[in-house]
From TrEMBL:
GO MF term (any one): microtubule binding
Gene3D superfamilies referenced in this protein's UniProt entry, alphabetically: 6.10.250.1380
Keywords on record: Cell cycle, Cell division, Centromere, Chromosome, Cytoplasm, Cytoskeleton, Kinetochore, Microtubule, Mitosis
PANTHER family per record: SPINDLE AND KINETOCHORE-ASSOCIATED PROTEIN 2
Family (UniProt): Belongs to the SKA2 family.
Ska2 N-terminal domain location: 3-48
Protein's UniProt name: Protein FAM33A
BP term (GO), one: cell division
Cellular component annotations (GO), alphabetically ordered: outer kinetochore; spindle microtubule
Localization terms from the record: Chromosome, Centromere, Kinetochore; Cytoplasm, Cytoskeleton, Spindle
Source organism: Suricata suricatta (Meerkat)
High-level lineage: Eukaryota, Metazoa, Chordata, Craniata, Vertebrata
Length: 62
């Protein structure tokens, strides 16, 4: 059972890392391709904030 839990934890850590990398690449692409536009990202919506908090809480429980 512990092996399965460890495997799931590693999968979530990789997914979190992948999302961080995607965010970095998107921000870089926006800055590179639209240097004169307002490339600053919009604030998160209430739903996005809730989802982010739930994900962080879930990951911290692992």
């Amino acid at each position: 059972m512990q092996a399965e839990v460890d495997k799931l934890e590693l999968m979530f850590q990789k997914a979190d890392s992948d999302l961080d990398y995607i965010e970095y690449r998107l921000e870089d692409e926006i800055k590179t391709n639209h240097p004169y536009a307002a490339v600053e990202l919009l604030p998160l919506t209430k739903e996005e904030k809730t989802a982010a908090e739930q994900l962080k809480s879930f990951l911290s429980d692992l």
